[in-house]
Design goal:
- Helix content is 42%, strand content 20%.
- Strands 1, 2, 3, 4, 5 and 6 form a 6-stranded mixed beta sheet that branches.
- Strand 5 (130-142) and strand 6 form a beta hairpin.
- The N and C termini lie far apart (62 Å).
- The radius of gyration is 23 Å and the shape is globular.
- The chain is of the alpha/beta class.
Amino acid sequence: MFKRSLKLAACLAPLAFAVGCATKPAAPYDYTAFKAAKPRSIVVLPPLNDSPDVNASYSVYSHVTYPLAEAGYYVLPVALVDETFKQNGLASPADIHNVPLNKLKDIFGADAALYVTVTKYGATYTLLNSVVVVTANAKLVDLKTGAVMWSGAASASDEGGNNNSGGGLIGALVSAAVKQIVNNVTDAAYPVAAIATGRLLSSGQNNGLLYGPRSLNYVKE
């Protein structure tokens, strides 16, 4: 019996090793361009919306200032930035994202521009549940050189507290249907967008944005 156990352990050891090696940590981000640019101020462009929900762009846009300011950067007020584009005949995020970098530098005087794209926003209905998901990616571009200093992606959902405590299958179906209706009527993705944006733009995390000069955690190179 003991010998059989040893043989089994010997057979399983390579498998365990293979499984353990299957998940590799993300490679460290190359911050060379970021550290060379030393950005102090950021203009955030209205996000592109690749989701079917028309609320996605400006919902995410309303949440970008806080994590960037907390990270130690001066962020141009997004309402002012948006209105400036509109006054110049640019109301579409797609058109705004095509504005030349030198124009953005001349108009806003910022060191860097943040380009955000929302890829998922809103509720997804399944048989027994309705899950709200927000996913976005971003890149920070040096307005002097055009170099991409940083890029990343993040996602958030409200799936954590959706386990049904009772009622059986009928109760679960009714609960899911009601939740879907509520999500669609109230834009339940708005608070989830705050979480996703915080995860995307907060400093101090693996491969995240570096701290800016207004932060106590800022490291001078």
